[in-house]
Amino acid sequence: MRRSLDTLDEGELLRRTGRGDRRAFDELYRRTAPWLLVRLRRRCSDEDLVAEVLQDTYLAVWRSAGSQRHAAASGSAVGWLWTIAAHRLIDAFRRRERQTRLPTVATVETVEPAAEDRALAGDLDADLEQALLALPDELRQVLRALVLDGLTVRETSLLLGMPEGTVKTRARRARIALREALS
Question: What domains appear along the chain, each with residue ranges and CATH number?
Answer without folding.
Answer: 1-108 (1.10.1740.10), 109-183 (1.10.10.10)
